[in-house]
Design a protein that fits this description.
Blueprint lengths: L3 H21 L4 H17 L9 H27 L19 H9 L2 H12 L4 H8 L3 H32 L13
C-alpha cells in the first residue's frame, strides 16, 4: 500500500504554485501563504474524498471556499471595527485589463458567474473538465457557461466600444465648422 503522506507531499509540491497563484489573484498578498496552508490542511483531512487525477480542481474548490470565508471574515472585521482601510492586495481579475479600458469596463458588466468561469478557464488556463470539478457542475455545464460568458463579454465589449465611439464622434474636430450661424 502506498504511503499516504508521501502521496500527499507529492500533490502538495505539484499543486502549491497553482493554488498560491489562484489565491494571489483573489486576496491580499499577506494572506496567500496562510490561506494556501489552510487549503492543504483541509485537503489532508479530506484526502480520501478526492479521486486520483482530480486533485487540482478539488484544491481549487477548497481554495474558493477559503477565499469566500476569508472575505467574510474581513467584511465582519470591517463592520465590527468600522475600519475602511484599502487592502494591499494582488490585482483583481479586471485589473489585468487596465491597458484596455474598454475591455475592463466590459468585464465589470459581467455577472459573477460569467467572470468566475472566464477567470478559471481563460485566465487560470484550467481545463474545462477540471473547472467543472472546481465549480461542482458537469463539464457540459462549464462549456455552456463558458460559451455564454464569452458571448456576454463580446456583447458588453461591443456596447462599450459603441458608447465610446459615439462619445468621440460628438466632439467636433478642430477643423470642423459649426452649423450655427455667426452672430
Amino acid at each position: 500500500m502506498p504511503d499516504a503522506r508521501a502521496e500527499f507531499e507529492a500533490v502538495y509540491r505539484r499543486h502549491l504554485p497553482a493554488i498560491s497563484a489562484y489565491l494571489a489573484r483573489r486576496v491580499a498578498r499577506d494572506d496567500v501563504e496562510d490561506l494556501a496552508a489552510d487549503v492543504f490542511a483541509i485537503a489532508w483531512r479530506k484526502r480520501t474524498s478526492v479521486t486520483s487525477g482530480e486533485e487540482l480542481p478539488w484544491l481549487y474548490r477548497i481554495a474558493s471556499y477559503q477565499v469566500s470565508n476569508h472575505r467574510r471574515r474581513i467584511a465582519m472585521r470591517r463592520t465590527l471595527l468600522g475600519v475602511l482601510a484599502t487592502p494591499d492586495s494582488a490585482p483583481a481579475a479586471d485589473a489585468l485589463f487596465d491597458t484596455d479600458p474598454e475591455l475592463a469596463a466590459a468585464w465589470r458588466t459581467l455577472s459573477a458567474r460569467h467572470r468566475e468561469v472566464l477567470a478559471l478557464v481563460v485566465l487560470e488556463e484550467v481545463p474545462v473538465a477540471e473547472a467543472a470539478i472546481a465549480l461542482e457542475v458537469s463539464a457540459n455545464a462549464v462549456s455552456v457557461r463558458l460559451h455564454r460568458a464569452k458571448k456576454a463579454l463580446a456583447d458588453a465589449l461591443e456596447a462599450t466600444r459603441a458608447t465610446t465611439s459615439r462619445r468621440s464622434s460628438d466632439i467636433p474636430d478642430a477643423g470642423e465648422r459649426s452649423e450655427a450661424p455667426a452672430t
